[in-house]
Amino acid sequence: MILKPDTLPMGAPYAIGAAIVYALRADEALQGAAVIDNPMRASDLVEGGRIVFFEDQHDKPRGQPGQRPQRSYAFAIGVINRTENARNGAHADYRAAKRAVRSCMPAINALVTVEGAGMVEGDVRYRLENIDVGGGLVLGMFTLDYRDPG
């Protein structure tokens, strides 16, 4: 039996997330914002006038038994803006982050076979219970249905 080399040794969710973080860091409209990949603790989000963060949520199987395996990957993109016009800035940064995420779809398509509607934006929140971010917050959830090549 000949085994094909694993094209995604860290797994599809890691590779997809890395492509998204790269796109956020490279986006011209987000220059000057701190882009954080999966913040480890709340204190990672305490300082800075403009913060954009990416956070893995889950990766789970979907589809019917007996069919080719499909997966659904979910992630969050959040922005915190503590500038003078924080609400306006948070919404502008979120729109820029969303454009950056959508712009990296060709890179994601090169990694995995995207299924269905592709990347879908879900709920967007503007406040988190019991958390004061000291400025404007926009937090969006996204899902991506795909087939893992490995």
Keywords for this entry:
150 residues; alpha+beta; 3 helices; 5 strands
Word description of this protein:
- This protein has three helices and five strands; from the N terminus they run H-E-E-E-H-H-E-E.
- It has helices spanning about 10-25, 85-105, 105-110; strands at about 35, 50-60, 70-80, 115-125, 135-145.
- The protein has a five-stranded mixed beta sheet with strand order 1-2-3-5-4.
- Helix 1 packs across helix 2 (about 85-105).
- The protein starts with 11 loop residues before the first helix and ends with a strand.
- The mean pLDDT is about 90.
Pick out the low-confidence regions. Answer: none
What fraction, in percent, of the residue positions are helical?
A: 25-40%
**What string, H for helix and E for strand, traces the elements in order?**
HEEEHHEE
Give, in spatial order, the strands making up the sheet with the most strands: 1-2-3-5-4
Report strand %.
35-45%
Q: Compute the CA-based radius of gyration.
A: 17 Å
Sum up the overall morphology in one term: elongated
Q: Quick one: how many beta strands?
A: 5
Number of helices: 3
| Major β-sheet profile | 5 strands, mixed
Average pLDDT value?
Answer: 91
User: How far is the first residue's CA from the last residue's CA?
Assistant: 16 Å
Structural class assignment: alpha+beta
Brief overview:
The chain has 150 residues and is an alpha+beta fold. The chain contains 3 helices and 5 strands; from the N terminus they run H-E-E-E-H-H-E-E.
Secondary structure layout:
Blueprint: H1 12-26, E1 34-37, E2 50-62, E3 70-81, H2 86-103, H3 105-111, E4 113-125, E5 136-147
Parallel strand pairs: 1-2
Antiparallel strand pairs: 2-3, 3-5, 4-5
Helix pairs in contact: 1-2
